[in-house]
Each structure stands twice: as structure tokens, then as C-alpha cells.
Amino acid sequence: MDAPWYSYNISFTLQWTRQGGRRREMRGAGDNYGKQRGIAHMVRALVWSLKGLLAAVRYEAAFRQELLAVAVLVPTGIVLGKTGTERALLVGCLFVVLVVELLNSALEAVVNRVGLEDHPLSGRAKDLGSAAVFLSICTVAVVWLLILWPINQVGS
Q1: CA 54 to chain centre
Q2: Of 24, 33, 34, 128, which one has the fewest beta carbons inside 10 Å?
């Protein structure tokens, strides 16, 4: 039985085995050939991350609004939380909203890059991203209510 005409290696690089009798590798996104490693890569990743955050602040009104809410609610959560766990939950869920908003903005940018004409799948993708942001905001509301609402205070 002949070997298949393709095979995947560990870095998901496609290797063509039957092309003119020669074995030829095509470099893909999984290869580390020519890429920086170590501290240099970490510094470049930090720069790219900061560029992304600045782009979100500059171009995304929803991100700016949520960032303002986080700036107000983080100190509030630190003051109102009684234990370290409560403070971590109150503050941590706020940053989840920012992360989901960044992903939603990236999704919308990609959909807009593909085409601005109306298409049901484009609309669905944007609606799903918006729903994810909504659910993350609902999660913040639930966490804050469960921690700060005095339902059952034991020992009082």
C-alpha cells in the first residue's frame, strides 16, 4: 500500500511527498523558523498587546465605556470585598468583560474586513459576539449581587 501523498508533522506543516520525486516542506504558521524567542519575543508581544489596547480605546466606543466602568468598579470592589476571594471575584469578573469586548471587537473587525455587504452569517457572527459581551456583563451583575447582597448572614 502506498503512503498517502501528504502527512502532518508535529508543527502541522504540510509535507508534500510526491512532487517530482522530491520531498519538499512548506513552512506554515506552526514553524518557529526565523522567529524571535525568549525575552525579545516577550517584548514584541507586549508591544503588540499595547497596540491592540490603544486601538480598542481609540476606535471602540463600547470598550471605552466599559473601561470607564471598570475604572470606577475596581476600587469599589476592593473596598467592598471582605476577603481576598471576594475581592478577586468582584474585580476579576470586570476584566472578563474587557477581554470579551476585545474579542468581540476583533471579530467585528474581521467580519468588516471580509465584506461590508449584508450577509446572514456576518450578522450572526456579530450578534453572537454581542451576546457574549452581554453574558459577561450579566455575570458581573450576578457575582456582585451574590457577594454584596446580604441574603443569609450566619451569626448575625
Answers
A1: 15
A2: 34
Looking at residue 3, the DSSP 8-state letter turns out to be P
Burial 70-101 (b: 16+ CB within 10 A, else e): beebeeebeeebeeeebbebbbebbeebbebb
Q: What is the pLDDT of residues 2-61, one digit of tens each?
A: 555 444 444 434 444 444 544 445 555 555 555 778 898 899 999 999 999 999 999 999
| CATH topology for the 59-148 domain | Helix Hairpins (1.10.287)
Examine the residue annotation and report whether 60 is marked as an active-site residue of this protein. no
Q: Is the pTM of this model over 0.85?
A: no
Secondary structure of the chain: what % helix, strand, coil (to 5)?
65, 10, 25
The ranges assigned to domains in the chain are 59-148
Give the CA-trace dihedral at 77, 94, 138, 69, to 10 degrees. 80
Catalytic entry in 60, 101, 108, 117: 101
